[in-house]
Amino acid sequence: MADELLRASGLESGYGGVQVLWGADIAVAAGETVVLLGANGAGKTTLLRVLMGLMPAWRGTITLDGAAVTHETTDQRVRRGVAYMSELGVFPDMTIADNLRIGSRFAPRAARAAAIDALYARFPDLAGKRRSLAGSLSGGQRKMLGIAKALAGRPRLLVMDEPSAGLSPLYVAEVLAVLGRFRAEGLALLIAEQNVAFLDLADRVCTLERGRTVFTGTTAELHANDALERAYFGLT
Ligand code: ATP
Protein backbone atom coordinates (compact mmCIF):
# COMPACT_ATOMS: atom_id res chain seq x y z
CA MET A 1 0.00 0.00 0.00
CA ALA A 2 1.33 3.44 -0.88
CA ASP A 3 2.21 5.58 2.14
CA GLU A 4 1.18 2.94 4.60
CA LEU A 5 0.72 4.43 8.05
CA LEU A 6 -0.74 1.64 10.17
CA ARG A 7 -0.85 -2.08 9.56
CA ALA A 8 -1.99 -4.84 11.90
CA SER A 9 -1.88 -8.50 10.92
CA GLY A 10 -3.24 -11.58 12.62
CA LEU A 11 -4.06 -9.87 15.88
CA GLU A 12 -5.28 -12.06 18.70
CA SER A 13 -6.18 -10.78 22.14
CA GLY A 14 -8.78 -10.91 24.88
CA TYR A 15 -9.58 -10.46 28.55
CA GLY A 16 -8.07 -12.92 31.03
CA GLY A 17 -8.80 -16.34 29.58
CA VAL A 18 -11.48 -15.07 27.18
CA GLN A 19 -10.20 -14.64 23.64
CA VAL A 20 -12.01 -11.91 21.69
CA LEU A 21 -9.78 -11.25 18.66
CA TRP A 22 -9.05 -14.30 16.55
CA GLY A 23 -7.04 -12.90 13.67
CA ALA A 24 -7.86 -9.27 12.96
CA ASP A 25 -6.13 -7.48 10.06
CA ILE A 26 -6.41 -3.80 9.29
CA ALA A 27 -4.37 -1.19 7.42
CA VAL A 28 -4.62 2.57 7.03
CA ALA A 29 -2.65 4.63 4.52
CA ALA A 30 -1.61 8.23 5.08
CA GLY A 31 -4.64 10.48 4.65
CA GLU A 32 -7.00 7.54 4.27
CA THR A 33 -10.30 7.00 6.09
CA VAL A 34 -11.11 3.43 7.10
CA VAL A 35 -14.40 2.56 8.78
CA LEU A 36 -14.44 -0.57 10.92
CA LEU A 37 -17.93 -2.05 10.96
CA GLY A 38 -19.11 -4.83 13.24
CA ALA A 39 -22.07 -5.82 15.37
CA ASN A 40 -22.18 -5.34 19.14
CA GLY A 41 -19.50 -7.47 20.71
CA ALA A 42 -17.68 -8.21 17.44
CA GLY A 43 -14.49 -6.89 19.04
CA LYS A 44 -14.14 -3.40 17.54
CA THR A 45 -13.28 -1.69 20.83
CA THR A 46 -10.89 -4.49 21.70
CA LEU A 47 -9.14 -4.16 18.33
CA LEU A 48 -8.71 -0.40 18.73
CA ARG A 49 -7.38 -0.87 22.27
CA VAL A 50 -4.82 -3.41 21.05
CA LEU A 51 -3.80 -1.10 18.18
CA MET A 52 -3.21 1.68 20.73
CA GLY A 53 -1.27 -0.53 23.14
CA LEU A 54 -3.94 -0.27 25.84
CA MET A 55 -4.16 -4.07 25.79
CA PRO A 56 -1.43 -6.52 24.75
CA ALA A 57 -1.54 -8.42 21.46
CA TRP A 58 -1.33 -12.13 22.27
CA ARG A 59 -0.34 -12.82 18.67
CA GLY A 60 0.14 -10.82 15.52
CA THR A 61 2.02 -7.67 14.58
CA ILE A 62 1.38 -3.94 14.42
CA THR A 63 3.49 -1.49 12.44
CA LEU A 64 3.42 2.30 12.22
CA ASP A 65 5.24 3.79 9.21
CA GLY A 66 6.71 0.33 8.71
CA ALA A 67 8.26 0.14 12.20
CA ALA A 68 7.16 -2.69 14.52
CA VAL A 69 5.31 -1.18 17.50
CA THR A 70 3.57 -4.33 18.75
CA HIS A 71 5.39 -4.11 22.07
CA GLU A 72 5.57 -0.34 22.37
CA THR A 73 3.62 1.55 25.03
CA THR A 74 0.60 3.69 24.19
CA ASP A 75 2.66 6.85 24.75
CA GLN A 76 5.26 5.71 22.24
CA ARG A 77 2.56 5.07 19.65
CA VAL A 78 0.95 8.46 20.32
CA ARG A 79 4.34 10.13 19.85
CA ARG A 80 4.49 8.48 16.42
CA GLY A 81 1.42 10.47 15.43
CA VAL A 82 -1.60 8.38 16.38
CA ALA A 83 -4.36 9.76 18.62
CA TYR A 84 -7.14 7.76 20.23
CA MET A 85 -10.64 8.92 21.08
CA SER A 86 -12.50 6.45 23.25
CA GLU A 87 -16.29 6.46 23.48
CA LEU A 88 -16.08 8.74 26.53
CA GLY A 89 -13.38 10.88 24.97
CA VAL A 90 -12.95 13.63 27.61
CA PHE A 91 -12.27 14.13 31.31
CA PRO A 92 -15.62 15.49 32.59
CA ASP A 93 -14.18 16.84 35.88
CA MET A 94 -11.63 19.00 34.10
CA THR A 95 -12.10 22.26 32.22
CA ILE A 96 -12.20 22.41 28.44
CA ALA A 97 -8.84 24.22 28.47
CA ASP A 98 -7.26 21.48 30.62
CA ASN A 99 -8.69 18.74 28.42
CA LEU A 100 -7.06 20.36 25.41
CA ARG A 101 -3.81 20.89 27.32
CA ILE A 102 -3.72 17.17 28.12
CA GLY A 103 -4.50 16.36 24.51
CA SER A 104 -1.58 18.48 23.35
CA ARG A 105 1.04 16.94 25.64
CA PHE A 106 2.67 14.88 22.91
CA ALA A 107 2.95 17.76 20.45
CA PRO A 108 6.31 19.56 20.47
CA ARG A 109 6.26 22.00 23.42
CA ALA A 110 6.69 25.05 21.21
CA ALA A 111 3.72 24.04 19.06
CA ARG A 112 1.19 23.33 21.82
CA ALA A 113 -0.30 26.79 22.38
CA ALA A 114 -0.68 27.36 18.63
CA ALA A 115 -2.30 23.94 18.20
CA ILE A 116 -4.85 24.75 20.91
CA ASP A 117 -5.56 28.24 19.53
CA ALA A 118 -6.11 26.73 16.09
CA LEU A 119 -8.61 24.31 17.60
CA TYR A 120 -10.50 27.09 19.39
CA ALA A 121 -10.78 28.81 16.01
CA ARG A 122 -12.23 25.61 14.55
CA PHE A 123 -14.56 24.97 17.50
CA PRO A 124 -15.91 28.41 18.53
CA ASP A 125 -18.46 26.84 20.93
CA LEU A 126 -15.56 25.48 22.96
CA ALA A 127 -13.59 28.73 22.79
CA GLY A 128 -16.41 30.52 24.60
CA LYS A 129 -16.40 28.00 27.42
CA ARG A 130 -12.74 27.27 28.07
CA ARG A 131 -13.07 27.59 31.87
CA SER A 132 -16.20 25.40 32.02
CA LEU A 133 -16.02 21.79 33.08
CA ALA A 134 -16.21 19.33 30.20
CA GLY A 135 -18.95 17.55 32.15
CA SER A 136 -21.19 20.61 31.79
CA LEU A 137 -21.23 20.36 27.99
CA SER A 138 -24.06 18.75 26.02
CA GLY A 139 -23.40 15.30 24.58
CA GLY A 140 -22.73 16.75 21.15
CA GLN A 141 -20.37 19.44 22.41
CA ARG A 142 -18.57 16.88 24.53
CA LYS A 143 -17.97 14.81 21.40
CA MET A 144 -16.55 17.88 19.66
CA LEU A 145 -14.26 18.42 22.65
CA GLY A 146 -13.19 14.78 22.40
CA ILE A 147 -12.25 15.33 18.76
CA ALA A 148 -10.47 18.60 19.57
CA LYS A 149 -8.61 16.98 22.48
CA ALA A 150 -7.43 14.14 20.27
CA LEU A 151 -6.33 16.58 17.55
CA ALA A 152 -4.48 18.86 20.02
CA GLY A 153 -1.53 16.47 19.80
CA ARG A 154 -1.32 17.11 16.03
CA PRO A 155 -1.77 13.44 15.04
CA ARG A 156 -1.57 12.11 11.49
CA LEU A 157 -4.05 9.35 12.33
CA LEU A 158 -7.09 9.67 14.56
CA VAL A 159 -8.47 6.38 15.88
CA MET A 160 -12.06 6.75 17.09
CA ASP A 161 -14.36 4.39 18.94
CA GLU A 162 -18.02 4.92 17.97
CA PRO A 163 -18.09 8.69 17.64
CA SER A 164 -21.87 8.47 17.05
CA ALA A 165 -22.54 6.80 20.43
CA GLY A 166 -25.25 8.60 22.37
CA LEU A 167 -25.70 11.34 19.76
CA SER A 168 -28.90 12.49 18.07
CA PRO A 169 -28.93 12.28 14.25
CA LEU A 170 -28.38 16.05 14.09
CA TYR A 171 -25.16 15.81 16.09
CA VAL A 172 -24.07 12.74 14.13
CA ALA A 173 -24.32 14.87 10.99
CA GLU A 174 -22.28 17.59 12.69
CA VAL A 175 -19.57 15.12 13.75
CA LEU A 176 -19.47 13.78 10.19
CA ALA A 177 -19.08 17.30 8.80
CA VAL A 178 -16.26 18.14 11.21
CA LEU A 179 -14.41 14.90 10.48
CA GLY A 180 -14.92 15.44 6.76
CA ARG A 181 -13.16 18.80 6.98
CA PHE A 182 -10.13 17.39 8.83
CA ARG A 183 -10.06 14.46 6.40
CA ALA A 184 -9.91 16.92 3.49
CA GLU A 185 -6.85 18.47 5.14
CA GLY A 186 -5.05 15.13 5.07
CA LEU A 187 -5.85 13.60 8.47
CA ALA A 188 -6.14 9.80 8.34
CA LEU A 189 -9.08 8.31 10.24
CA LEU A 190 -9.83 4.85 11.60
CA ILE A 191 -13.41 4.84 12.89
CA ALA A 192 -15.14 1.92 14.60
CA GLU A 193 -18.86 2.35 14.08
CA GLN A 194 -22.19 0.62 13.83
CA ASN A 195 -23.78 3.67 12.22
CA VAL A 196 -23.52 3.18 8.46
CA ALA A 197 -23.79 6.96 7.92
CA PHE A 198 -20.02 6.97 8.55
CA LEU A 199 -19.51 5.03 5.33
CA ASP A 200 -19.95 8.37 3.54
CA LEU A 201 -16.49 9.29 4.84
CA ALA A 202 -14.82 5.98 4.08
CA ASP A 203 -12.17 5.30 1.48
CA ARG A 204 -12.27 1.69 2.62
CA VAL A 205 -14.37 -0.45 4.93
CA CYS A 206 -13.33 -3.38 7.15
CA THR A 207 -15.87 -5.66 8.75
CA LEU A 208 -15.18 -7.57 11.94
CA GLU A 209 -17.16 -10.66 12.91
CA ARG A 210 -16.47 -12.57 16.10
CA GLY A 211 -12.97 -11.11 16.27
CA ARG A 212 -11.97 -11.78 12.67
CA THR A 213 -11.70 -9.41 9.74
CA VAL A 214 -14.04 -10.87 7.14
CA PHE A 215 -14.09 -8.12 4.52
CA THR A 216 -11.87 -5.26 3.42
CA GLY A 217 -12.77 -3.16 0.41
CA THR A 218 -14.47 -0.03 -0.83
CA THR A 219 -18.01 0.91 0.15
CA ALA A 220 -19.13 -0.01 -3.37
CA GLU A 221 -17.59 -3.47 -2.95
CA LEU A 222 -19.38 -3.84 0.39
CA HIS A 223 -22.70 -2.98 -1.26
CA ALA A 224 -21.97 -5.52 -4.01
CA ASN A 225 -21.62 -8.32 -1.42
CA ASP A 226 -25.15 -9.62 -0.75
CA ALA A 227 -24.44 -11.23 2.62
CA LEU A 228 -22.69 -8.13 3.98
CA GLU A 229 -25.29 -5.83 2.48
CA ARG A 230 -27.95 -7.76 4.40
CA ALA A 231 -25.90 -7.80 7.61
CA TYR A 232 -25.09 -4.10 7.69
CA PHE A 233 -27.95 -2.46 5.88
CA GLY A 234 -30.74 -4.75 7.06
CA LEU A 235 -31.92 -5.46 3.53
CA THR A 236 -33.49 -8.79 2.68
P1 ATP B 1 -19.64 -2.71 21.18
O1 ATP B 1 -20.12 -2.03 19.97
O2 ATP B 1 -20.73 -3.32 21.99
O3 ATP B 1 -18.65 -1.92 22.00
P2 ATP B 1 -17.41 -4.13 20.13
O4 ATP B 1 -17.42 -4.68 18.76
O5 ATP B 1 -16.64 -2.90 20.38
O6 ATP B 1 -18.87 -3.99 20.62
P3 ATP B 1 -15.89 -5.24 22.27
O7 ATP B 1 -16.29 -4.16 23.22
O8 ATP B 1 -14.51 -5.24 21.75
O9 ATP B 1 -16.87 -5.30 21.04
O10 ATP B 1 -16.19 -6.62 23.00
C1 ATP B 1 -15.91 -7.88 22.39
C2 ATP B 1 -16.18 -8.98 23.39
O11 ATP B 1 -15.32 -8.84 24.50
C3 ATP B 1 -17.60 -8.98 23.94
O12 ATP B 1 -18.03 -10.31 24.01
C4 ATP B 1 -17.44 -8.41 25.32
O13 ATP B 1 -18.40 -8.96 26.20
C5 ATP B 1 -16.05 -8.84 25.70
N1 ATP B 1 -15.45 -7.88 26.63
C6 ATP B 1 -15.30 -6.55 26.43
N2 ATP B 1 -14.69 -5.96 27.48
C7 ATP B 1 -14.43 -6.94 28.36
C8 ATP B 1 -13.80 -6.98 29.66
N3 ATP B 1 -13.30 -5.87 30.23
N4 ATP B 1 -13.72 -8.18 30.27
C9 ATP B 1 -14.22 -9.30 29.68
N5 ATP B 1 -14.81 -9.33 28.47
C10 ATP B 1 -14.92 -8.18 27.83
TrEMBL record:
<dbReference type="GO" id="GO:0016887">
    <property type="term" value="F:ATP hydrolysis activity"/>
</dbReference>
<dbReference type="Pfam" id="PF00005">
    <property type="entry name" value="ABC_tran"/>
</dbReference>
<comment type="similarity">
    <text>Belongs to the ABC transporter superfamily.</text>
</comment>
<dbReference type="InterPro" id="IPR017871">
    <property type="entry name" value="ABC_transporter-like_CS"/>
</dbReference>
<keyword id="KW-0813">Transport</keyword>
<keyword id="KW-0547">Nucleotide-binding</keyword>
<protein>
    <submittedName>
        <fullName>ABC transporter</fullName>
    </submittedName>
</protein>
<dbReference type="GO" id="GO:0015807">
    <property type="term" value="P:L-amino acid transport"/>
</dbReference>
<dbReference type="GO" id="GO:0015658">
    <property type="term" value="F:branched-chain amino acid transmembrane transporter activity"/>
</dbReference>
<dbReference type="InterPro" id="IPR003439">
    <property type="entry name" value="ABC_transporter-like_ATP-bd"/>
</dbReference>
<dbReference type="InterPro" id="IPR027417">
    <property type="entry name" value="P-loop_NTPase"/>
</dbReference>
<dbReference type="InterPro" id="IPR052156">
    <property type="entry name" value="BCAA_Transport_ATP-bd_LivF"/>
</dbReference>
<keyword id="KW-0029">Amino-acid transport</keyword>
<dbReference type="InterPro" id="IPR003593">
    <property type="entry name" value="AAA+_ATPase"/>
</dbReference>
<dbReference type="GO" id="GO:0005524">
    <property type="term" value="F:ATP binding"/>
</dbReference>
<feature type="domain" description="ABC transporter">
    <location>
        <begin position="6"/>
        <end position="235"/>
    </location>
</feature>
<keyword id="KW-0067">ATP-binding</keyword>
